[in-house]
């Protein structure tokens, strides 16, 4: 199935916030915030998420929200 525009934006925002720090949550549309955190939780490593916090690219609350999504995921066995 093709990726929707919203999915592309969420992916792009996630990379810009967590990986290279060129965006912040305050610079994105609020209705995307939870999807961005969910995407990051599912696709980025703990090291990458921790680095985003250490660099000041995300706040402690944004970090906590993202980590909570990583703990909700069920591993495949």
Q: Tell me the span between the first and last alpha carbons.
A: 25 Å
Q: Give unreliable regions as ranges.
A: none
Estimate percent helicity: 55-70%
Number of helices: 4
Largest sheet: none
Shape: globular
N-to-C SSE series?
HHHH
Oligomer: single chain
Number of DSSP E strands: 0
3D structure, described in words:
The chain has helices spanning 5-19, 33-43, 46-54, 60-72. It is mainly α. α1 (5-19) crosses α2, α2 packs across α4 and α3 packs antiparallel against α4 (60-72).
Summary of the model, kept short:
This protein has 77 residues and is mostly helical.
What's the structural blueprint in terms of helices and strands?
Elements: H1 5-19, H2 33-43, H3 46-54, H4 60-72
From the structure above, extract its key features.
77 residues, mainly alpha
């Amino acid at each position: 199935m093709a990726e929707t525009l919203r999915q592309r934006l969420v992916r792009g925002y996630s990379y810009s916030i967590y990986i290279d720090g060129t965006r912040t949550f305050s610079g994105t549309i609020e209705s995307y915030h939870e999807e961005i955190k969910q995407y990051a939780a599912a696709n980025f490593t703990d090291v990458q998420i921790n680095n985003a916090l250490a660099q000041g690219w995300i706040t402690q609350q944004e970090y906590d929200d993202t980590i909570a999504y990583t703990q909700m995921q069920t591993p495949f066995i």
